[in-house]
From TrEMBL:
This is Glycosyltransferase. The gene is rfaG. It comes from the Bacteria. It comes from Ligilactobacillus salivarius (strain UCC118) (Lactobacillus salivarius). Residues 202-362 form the Glycosyl transferase family domain. SUPFAM superfamilies: UDP-Glycosyltransferase/glycogen phosphorylase. Pfam families: Glyco_transf_4, Glycos_transf_1. InterPro entries: Glyco_trans_1, Glyco_trans_4-like_N.
């Protein structure tokens, strides 16, 4: 079977890139797989997550007009002035690009095309009636992140999803809450396929270190700024536990300034980005996942594999990962740092609870084995 995966970039550091690399590397064992992205050969050569050598690459067609600085300025002005969201289709999804993409899709003679995230899923949906391949959209964040977050993702594109998304043969989402919202709003029957854990490990956290771990890109969605606030409250009542805050990104300088302001330099350690998250799990006993929204975070699945309980807010992504009180704690009040700090205290001061959650996490991890998840993809890609 010839399969093409459309996405923006496979070379950056992030959950989307790690997940798509894993999927491509698994699919290529039995299929011919091609990645279509905006990456250059130089970027691919330096990609953090390594693709199987059998995976092919083609450059995704670019809208050269959209890269023009004058166009980008005018687009920003028009988005503020135009109130009819449907009219914005002509700005971001011009007809000349649709024809190019139809030719691009059909010339590859693929049996299936997977459009990753909102942008490539929507492009694929728009041209699906003219594409000979099976078409699959793959949503990698929550409904509210896509459609209700100003200036992000598919903000003001909901009307386009309403019109086009039913053209796809399949639309894949990551959890039950997202499926309910997608199906209700767009009148489709979407498919749920969980993300797989990215690795298995014979070594597990021994639960002896008084260390929290939080890891990811230092950006607004991850809410590490609020995590520092929660840890400040926690630290006033607990003098022992530390926090490993691993990752890099635009918010890191601000976060480090906040840590210094609160005098927490000896309690919150920021080692920067890593390509070996496992070593930090082995130093830690609990994962803190304070995100404002997620799809299905790979770091959460890795925590299960390493036997680390998780503390997270009650966002859509957490349902499949955390059974509240079993393998972690769900904080119902979203972004309430006081309540989050209380959950940290509850788990930090109860070794028996951590040990119980450790065993539950290890058992839960088996639900996300690569074999189980790939069998679900095989049902879609017939």
């Amino acid at each position: 079977m010839k399969i093409c995966i459309w996405l923006g970039t496979i070379s950056d550091i992030g959950g989307v890139q790690r997940l798509c690399t894993l999927l491509a590397n698994e699919l290529v064992k039995e299929n011919e797989v091609t990645i279509a992205s905006f990456d250059t050969p130089e970027k691919l050569a330096n990609a953090v997550y390594k693709l199987d050598k059998r995976v092919k690459f083609v450059e995704f067609p670019k809208n050269k007009v959209a890269s023009n600085i004058f166009y980008r300025i005018m687009r920003r002005i028009l988005f503020k002035l135009i109130r009819n969201d449907k009219y914005l289709e002509k700005i971001d999804f011009p007809k000349f690009m649709r024809k190019r993409l139809v030719d691009f899709a059909n010339q590859g003679e693929y049996d299936a095309i997977i459009g990753v995230h909102w942008y490539h899923s929507l492009w694929l949906a728009m041209i699906a009636p003219e594409v000979r391949a099976e078409t699959v959209g793959w949503q990698l964040s929550s409904f509210d992140a896509y459609f209700n977050t100003p200036g992000k993702y598919a903000w003001r594109k909901k009307v386009l999803f309403e019109e086009y998304i039913s053209n796809l043969d399949h639309y894949v989402v990551l959890n039950e809450r997202t499926k309910e919202k997608i199906d209700t709003n767009f009148g489709i029957d979407s498919s749920i396929i969980y993300n797989p854990r990215s690795y298995t490990s014979k070594e597990k956290s021994d639960m002896k270190n008084k260390v929290f771990l939080a890891a990811g890109r230092m950006v607004h969605v991850k809410a590490f700024d609020n995590l520092v606030e929660a840890f400040k409250i926690f630290a006033q009542k607990n003098p022992d536990w530390k926090l490993l805050l691993v990752g890099d990104g635009e918010d890191l300088p601000m976060i480090r300034d906040k840590i210094k302001k609160y005098g927490l330099e000896q309690r919150i350690i920021t080692p920067g980005k890593t390509d070996d998250i496992k070593k930090y799990f082995l130093q830690s006993s609990v994962l803190l996942l304070p995100s404002r929204w997620e799809g299905m975070p790979m770091i959460g699945l890795e925590a299960l594999e390493m036997g680390c309980p998780i503390i997270a807010y009650d966002i859509d992504a957490m349902g499949p990962i955390i059974s509240d009180g079993s393998n972690g704690l769900i904080v119902k009040e979203n972004q309430d740092v006081n309540t989050y700090a209380q959950a940290m205290l509850e788990i930090a001061e109860n070794q028996a609870l951590r040990d119980k959650m450790h065993q539950a996490a290890l058992q839960k991890a088996n639900q996300f084995s690569v074999g189980k998840i790939m069998s679900e993809w095989e049902k879609i890609l017939k």
